[in-house]
Protein 1
Amino acid sequence: MVETIQPRAIALVCTFQAITFIFVGLRLYSRRIFRDFGWDDVLILIAFLLSIVHAVGEYAMIKYDFLGYHVWDVPPTTMEFRATGKLFTFIAGMSYNPPLSLIRASITLFLLRVAESKRTIRISLYLIFAANLLQFVVFFVVELCQCLPVKYFWDFERMDLAAQQRAGADKNGMKDGKLVTGGKCINKPRFYVGAAIVYIILDFWLLCLPIILLWNLNIPRRRKTTAVIVLSMGGVTAFLATTRLVIMKKQWEAPPGSDYTYTSTSGISVAEMNVGIWTAAAPALNHLFARLFPRIWKRYGHKSSSRSPGPDEQLADDTIGGHPVNGAKRSRGMGPTGGGPVMPIITSGISLGTLGRGRSTQDRPPNDNSGEDLSLFGFDENQSDSQADGASIIARGGRSVSTLSSHQGYVKPASVEP
């Protein structure tokens, strides 16, 4: 019986792609509900579509190159068959870096929305964004033109044979002591190793920043740890990239006649890309899960005080800016960027944060320099485990209340804007 690990590699490709479809679908659904669709979502959507192209290319490459089989079990093939396999290899290679670059860009834009007042962090994020853009342009051009003409990458056998026949070369393709070829290629192993090292450095760089950003904030350690774990999924991407690099380097350094087809490298590259998309999509799902599973979320994610609101937790006037306050409920789709008036909400024991993009610097009270929009993570930076200190309120039309602070049985307006 022929030994093979090809089904395992194909299952890995299909499984990771299916999970990513769920992640991206939930993220887009969350953005639709809260009307908070931004450029980071656009980048993730494009990255997901390109990841499908990459997965298709990897799947076809696995089948055409008989990856997962021992080299002595690979059947004879025609020149056209091998050229088709190399074409899919080219497609998989061209669609590898763009999604990863878009994922880094999306995470960077997301963190820029969070780190509003952290100047050092913001400078580092801008540097990452610039470095990521630069490497994308450079490596995309090099990847495209690694062989000239470009077609030589997948059709080199036919082009070499045609060139040798025109030159009158011998049966080994030699003429005047030189090998006649139909094109030229760069040193592919060196290029792939160099590019992979740059990818890994950028991944680790981007991994450290959110951890530093969140760990220095004045929020409960439990929530801080949860947010760091979610964002640290990017470390898995860096680990997979490193593993892929080590495996590929061993394959390139293997002596002639080695069992180079018995590998699952293709599955690793798909896993690396999809885990990166999960990392970028996960923080945006906090609000969705809090809305769909409020009891579970309150118990395991955002604990609040169990006390009931007292009789004093009322305002003398039951309207602000012409909108009802007491008993008001946020209707579907209402948020800072949605249409229609946004009614203020009074809550006790739990801080909702501003829905969607959260508080902007313009919406904060004059003495609030916290800077970080942690409602993007699903919690307020001033909220404690036992009892929330306040609820962020947004109101449009007439007079607006930026923040309401609840403390010991009463609610007082923290800032009223004319």
Note: The CA atoms of residues 3 and 258 lie 16 Å apart.
Protein 2
Amino acid sequence: MAIITGTTLADTIRPGTTSSGVAGGIPGSGNDQINGFGGNDLLDGGGGANSINGGDGNDTIFASGAGETLDGGTGINTVSG
């Protein structure tokens, strides 16, 4: 389980890549906690039961695994999966 924390900018956090300044590594096989904070983020925890919080901004969140907990936060958010 990784705790991955974005910045106040528009971050990309997904398996295989994260934006500069993101702390905590990259999402793995599941059970990760991902916090986008500010900015218009693109968030994808990969497989498994992840907890994803977009924070402020207009975020795009991909629900890739079963049993995920998603919170877009404030803004106009898009959730798919």
Note: Strands lie at 3-5, 12-14, 17-18, 33-35, 42-44, 51-53, 60-62, 69-71, 78-80.
Protein 3
Amino acid sequence: MRNPGSNARPGSSRPGSSTPPPGTRRASQPGAIRSEEWRAGTSGPTASPPASRPITSSGRAPDGNTATGPGNPPRRNPFADEGTPPSRLQQVLARAGVSSRRDAEALITAGRVQVDGVTVRELGTRADPVRHQITVDGRPISVTTVVRYFALNKPRGYLSTVEDPFGRPTVMELVPPAPGLFPVGRLDEESEGLLLFTTDGEWAQRVTHPKFGCTKEYDVEVYGTPSRETMETLRAPLEIGPGDRSTGAEVDVIATSGRNTRLRIILHEGRNRQIRRMCEAVGLSVVSLVRVRVGGVRLGSLPVGQWRTLTSNEVESVSTTPAPRRGKATTTRRRPPSATRSIAAPQDRRPAWGERRPS
């Protein structure tokens, strides 16, 4: 696995530590079954359950005793540092491949699911799949499917795909190997910046699908100085290909340097090479493109080629992103210029009002 930069990766544990570093997966519990074994109805020996107990939505253990008190002090959340928040039982079962979430709810209410040997019927019950042994009809589920959330500062020259048939470098070489891990969305080979990874398909859907309104922010350097009309065109819905029309973007000038201009572009959707095609449609040439934010997750000072585990707050910031109201405009503009008109700014023109002349 390639690791440009320093040898000590962010989030790694000290040598000799018995605690696995964040981002690594525990081995399956003895007797744990995977989804294919579950459907086949086979299983191994049952492992001894740990001593900790799950917490229901009412704050009580499934056996009716209070989950906290003099004899049961509150437990530290083991995901506080690893970035994996506690999940509802139906979510854990669905992610483990046992069934769909709706079918998992039926399994729970039917009394077929046990946590640490205690039958759970309440749908609001949350359990830590690493610390609790979860069984269905007496057979433990595999904990190798515990979800992970990573952030990578992608360098140029890497494809945002799990594997490439031509053997070209992929972003999977830069993150810890984990079953089911995949990049969320993509950055093209020549683009850089924040790229998220997860094993959680539902979470990835909230990041990538436009209906959830998860914004992506980019630092884009273009050649020349865009005119005021060019900026308005970029902000409006724009034809970027045959039958392919963007929904508009937030575009502002960050700074000018020589003959180049740095733009801040915020998208509310994620089409293939969208920013490059938007710039091409208005006659701008992209010099560099760096993604600096996805939802509430920021690139920050993460070195190029390095990864880190997302915090629970970052994970939740994406999971709770409200979907935009249907029909509500995502951008504001003074007037709608032609969506198909290409506007290239002459390099020797007089700057428009509010623009800075390159030094």
Note: The chain is about 15% helix and 20% strand.
